[in-house]
Amino acid sequence: MKFYKNFVVFWTVTYLAIAFIGRFTTYNKEYFPFFRWSLYSKTPNQMEFPFVMVTKIGDSLIEPTNILNLKKIHHVSDIDMNLNVANFYLAVSNDFNKEEIAETRFLEILPKGSDYNLLVKELDLSKEDYINSEKIRKVCTIINNTIKDFD
């Protein structure tokens, strides 16, 4: 039993020594597998989640539906669609850069004649009850697969 106690104490002291030595001797202030001292201090307090609500597909009007729920129409996986929406949001919010928007090819995902809105859900994580800090903001409206209303 004494061996196990010594083993645990030895490796705990070694681990902590490497963590503290890394804190004061390296440029990044850490040796990666041991400690991440700045993990929580660099976490942002504001979060944004872009999403798309579709109101019309081709000639068919539908009630506002998240684009993730229309997998049978666009045949894109949820992960890829989330990446497409995030890239489209970044391109639109980058001063409406037409080259970046064209590179995302997001306007070609749904059939011609589709209408949808790009929205952003914003949360303030610095508040204890961050769910009540939720704000939804409309970024732009796409009518007939072209951007019409840009806020």
Would you give an account of this structure?
This protein is an alpha+beta fold. The protein has two domains: 40 residues, no CATH class; 105 residues, no CATH class. 34% of the residues lie in helices and 28% in strands. It contains four helices and five strands, in the order αββαααβββ. It has a five-stranded antiparallel β-sheet with strand order 2-1-3-4-5. A hairpin with a 2-residue loop joins strand 1 and strand 2. Helix 3 packs antiparallel against helix 4. It is elongated and about 75 Å long. The mean pLDDT is 83.
Number of strands: 5
Side-by-side strand order of the widest sheet: 2-1-3-4-5
- What fraction of the residues are assigned to beta strands by DSSP? 25-35%
Arithmetic mean of pLDDT? 83
Q: What is the tally of helical segments? A: 4
- Share in helix: 25-40%
From the helix content, strand content and strand pairing, which structural class follows? alpha+beta
The main sheet comes to: 5 strands, antiparallel
Spell the H/E element sequence: HEEHHHEEE
Kindly give the count of domains. Answer: 2
> How far from one another are the termini?
69 Å
Shape: elongated
Specify Rg, calculated over alpha carbons: 24 Å
Uncertain ranges: none
Task: Please give a handful of descriptors for the protein shown.
151 residues, elongated, alpha+beta, five-stranded antiparallel β-sheet
